[in-house]
Structure formats: C-alpha cells, structure tokens
Amino acid sequence: MPTAPPQPAPGGRIGRIDGRIDAVVHLGFAVLMVASGVRYVMRHSPADNLWTVALAAAVCVLYAVTAVLAGPRMAGHRNRPWMIALLAAWAVLVIVAPSFAWCSFAIFFLARTAFRGWAGYVAGGATAAATAVGLFRMSDWTDVAMLLGPLAAGVLLTLIYDKIERDAALQKKLFDDVSQAQEQLAAREREAGIATERQRVSREIHDTVTQGLASSLLLLEAAQRSWPAEAAQDDVRHAAGLLRRNLADTRSLVHELSVPGLESGPLPEALEQAARQYVDTIRVQVTGEPRPLPNEVRHALLRVTQSAAANINLHARAEHASVTLGYLPDAVTLDVFDDGRGFDPEAVPPPSPTGGYGLRAMRQRVEQLGGELSVESTPGEGTIIAAQMPLPAAGTETKERR
Q1: Cα(first)–Cα(last) distance of the chain, in Å?
Q2: Is the pTM of this model over 0.70?
C-alpha cells in the first residue's frame, strides 16, 4: 500500500535556522567590538586605553568560550558559569567605556539563548541596565534619554524575543503533530492493506483449494460406499483429477495467485473449464458482442463461476446447470443457474470453520469491482446467482493477457 512520504525532522530544520541566527549575532558582535575598540582608542589617551583594551580583550575571550566553544544551545548548565562571567565583565566594560554600548545587542541575545525562564529575563535586564548606566554616565548623568533609551530597548527586545520563541515552539509542535498524524495514517494504511490481502487470499483459497477438496471428499466417500463397482472407480479417478487440479491451484497461489490455463484464452472456454471441475454437464452460453475484458473482471468472473459450480456440486443435487455470459454496452453479466433443491437466501448461516463462506466471497469479489451480486432461490425450485460488473467505455478497455 502507498504510504506517506518521509518529512524532514522539525528539530533539525529549527536547529539549522538557529545556527544561522547565531552566526549572524556572532559576526555582528565581532564587527561592533572592533569598531567600538577603534573608536575608543582614537578618543582616549594611551594611559586610559591599556586597561580598557585589556578588559575588552577579556570580554572577547569570554564571548568566544561561551558562544563558540561551549555552544549555549547545546551545553545547557555547563555554559552558565561562563555566561555569568561574561555578563559581569561586560557590565564593567560598558560602564567604564560606553563606546562599547553597541555590542549590547549581541550580549542580550547570547544571554537569552544561554538562560531560560526567569534567569533569561534577569540576564537580559542586567545587560540593558549596564548599558543604560554606561550611557547615562557618558552624558555626565544629565541626559535622561541615555538612561531610559537602553531600558526601553531592552523591554522591546524582550517582547520580540519571547514572541519569536513562542512562534518557534508552536511551529515545532505543528511539525510534531503532522509527523505523528502521518505515522498514524501510514500505520492504518498498512493495517488496511494487510486486511485486504488476507481477504483476497482467503477468497482464492476458498474458491480453489477448499472447494476442490470438498468435492474430492464427496467423491471418495461415494466410492467407498460402492466399492468395487465400476462407478466407484470412476469416482476415484474423478477425485484424483480434482486433487491434481487443487495441487496446481495451490502452486498458483504461491506464485502470485495466477491461474495458468484459465487466465488466458477465450473467456467462455475458460469459464466452462472452471465450472466442469465440479459439474461435468454444465454448459456456457454467450449473449451480446464479446470483447476483451479487464484482467481483474475476468479473474472475478472465473472465481465466481468456480465457486457457484462447487456449490451446485456440494449442495444442489441438480440435474441441469448452465452459465450465461452476457456482454452489455457498459457492463458484463454472469448468470449461473441450476434446477436443484434450492434454499432460502435469508437463512444462510454465517461463515464458520465448516463452511458458509462461498456466497460472501463471491459478493466481495463483485462489489470490490463496483458490481452487484444477487441470489434468487426458493427451496425446491433451483437457484440463480447473477453478477453484473461495470466495464470501461469503449476504446479504453484493458487488454486481456494473451
């Protein structure tokens, strides 16, 4: 059965996106750190530069260890001490040298990546607060905008980051739900395929091996009762022939359930050969203009004929039986008649280990091809089994196997 195509793992896709964002943040930090360092060196004396540049270098080392070597998305708790050390060094640097304030964006995102929950809010708030204090100090503690601006930016970035995290979590959940639904659908399709295949094999076994063995058993029992009369020997020979055909049918089931000798050649002759395995005197009549039939329709007609003829042999005690194959413009019909003792179709017992599967199997075969099967019978007045199956429009018929 067809199954659903494999989907990429949600975690892998989200991980690749996170990796690209991290790369952009790290690159931005490096560029801003170099630009801020150059700006600071150009605006301050060498005596001021020494310790500030050393602190900036320490921040860069801590950033590299935290972001690149340890990997905040992968390391979890192992990375938190490094991140705390980075935040402390960064806070001192940005307060002492506000020229490095632009790098706060990278520090903020790195802190939110390394920490979750309340710890992430504290780390982000500490970054914004240190930046605000540094810029406010640079304005000689007079420009309130320098104080409020970084704090407002921190709040805004926190809201945006939370929204991104919620969207990412929702996307991952949707991917997981879709993946789970596809797995369940594939499992149901496999179960349905197994059930369908079991029904198909059970019908094939019933219409060939089981029916043939039942008929052989009746013949052998009749021979046992009348032995050593000539009629008994005829029954034994007939039973032997049926058993040989059962052996061939069994081998056919093993080899893809094909039916050598019946699946090829003219359909009326194949139907007559299939029916005469059980009823020697049966005849096949054809009405309408014969034409090639789809292989699955031909196979169903053969099996319905076999099963109906086997039922006549086992149950009907008929003197006459016939098969009529009819070709209509958009359908094909099959009527199997016998003048035996008949039965009440409404009183047929359900399938059991002792039998009762034939009519059900015939009906399933026909209905699976979009057709209908009806049974007309009355006790003492014979039986007619009628099947009708639709055919493709003219010019689109599937060729029979030659």
Answers
A1: 28
A2: no
Other C-beta atoms closer than 10 Å to the C-beta of 338 total: 26
Q: What is the pLDDT of residue 385?
A: 94
Report pLDDT digits (tens) over 54-94.
888 888 888 888 876 545 444 455 567 888 888 888 888 88
Q: How far apart are CA 203 and CA 197, in angstroms?
A: 10
Any idea which residue has 């390394």 for tokens?
114
Q: Which residues of the chain have pLDDT under 50?
A: 1-11, 14, 70, 72-75, 255-261, 397-402
- pLDDT at position 8: 44
Given 3-state DSSP classes, what are the helix, strand and coil percentages for the chain, each rounded to the nearest 5?
70, 10, 25
Alpha carbon distance 132, 255 (integer Å): 82
DSSP string, 1-15: ---PPP---HHHHHH
State the amino acid at position 351 in one-letter form: P
Contact 96/55 with Cβ under 8 angstroms? yes
Question: How many Å apart are CA 170 and CA 176, to the nearest integer?
Answer: 10
Which residues, listed in sequence order, are joined to residue 388 by a DSSP beta bridge?
333, 372
* Pairwise CA distance, residues 66 & 86, whole Å: 8
